[in-house]
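User: I'm curious what two different proteins look like when written out as structure tokens. Can you demonstrate?

Assistant: Sure. I'll show them one after the other, since each token string lines up with its own sequence. Here's the first protein:
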Amino acid sequence: MAKHRITLIPGDGIGPEITSAVVKILETAGLDVEWEPHLAGASAVEKHGSTLPQALLDAIARNKVALKGPLTTPVGGGFTSVNVGLRKALELFANLRPVWNIPSVPSRYQGVDLVIVRENTEDLYSGLEHEVVPGVVESLKIITLEASTRISQFAFDYARRHGRKRVTAVHKANIMKMGDGLFLKCVQDVAASYPDIKQDDLIVDAACMHLVMKPEQFDVLLMPNLYGDIVSDLCAGLVGGLGVVPAANLGTEVGVFEAVHGSAPDIAGRNIANPMALLLSALLMLQHIGETPMSDRIMKALGIVLSEDQVRTRDLGGTASTTEFAAAICRRLAA
């Protein structure tokens, strides 16, 4: 029996292509794994009549870890976000997005090395909205002491474990004095138990301004769901875009590691998609399951492929296909 049993969700659009590439890299690196593949999203509807089949949820709960390709979410109609549904069903309360400059990846900034910790289960993403009267829609923003305290403890624990020195709470408590005020108070209360880590806060609009002026000043950014969703994409743009940053959704026992970019149906099946974001998420997964040396070895191989071998996909200014890019990394791992 394999040392690791991991649920594999290929995803929609380019998902199966980049997932296959990442699986090849992990297996070349020597990961002792048994994959348990399951469909989700649009592809699952066609086969199972549900975007989130119970068999998928059961598999993730059983295996405790999953690697997930991008899923399609219709805009303005159709089925609700599968990503949000997955987080709610498995109580994946923490969204973790490290953002740093990868050598040889073109970006507008250098020296960026920050981590976004986003509360994943409530805020406006609770999906509680209704039409009060025709033409008037009310959406409820839910902030609770329990969830805000839990994500604050996660952020400070993460900072301590990874040698981070500062946690900045991002909020709008000057306007939403009760909701965001409660979130901020929870952060400050938790911070009192971590005297070794500096805690400060910024209003979300000011935080965005400072991020695009001097992003290298930030360490760990902690925020509610909506701000975290927006700011994490902004930060990805600082270092080259969503195609070069990883993400993890973590609960008390379960971790789902995913590419946060879209499913790109316009290029699906053309073997030109960049698998790097999913690969970097897989490296977070390796660290999570105790395979940090393997994660470091793959990261080193990726760096050599980008800088010395100059093998890059089209979005990074190269000509390599998805499979060529993966093969280049595999060659370095086998060398």
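Here's a second, unrelated protein for contrast:
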Amino acid sequence: MLGQDRPPRLRNMPGRNLEVLKDEIRLARERFGLGKGVEVESCYEAGRDGFWLHRFLETQGVRNLVVDSASIEVSRDLGE
């Protein structure tokens, strides 16, 4: 069952380990019961590593959105 009563699936992996990443995408597909024809989407902040991950995800059929951290609206209220 998926929903609010199920904890999120959080994973950590070694940086740039693309085999582990591919396996995690496969495991996520299984968890959500997604067939091969269902699009997987991803979103992350590129940061210093740039766009290599974006390009890799696209080769894996993952629709990816790269976010520029400077464009994310945040509260600057410091309680003053």
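A detail about the second structure: The mean pLDDT is 84.
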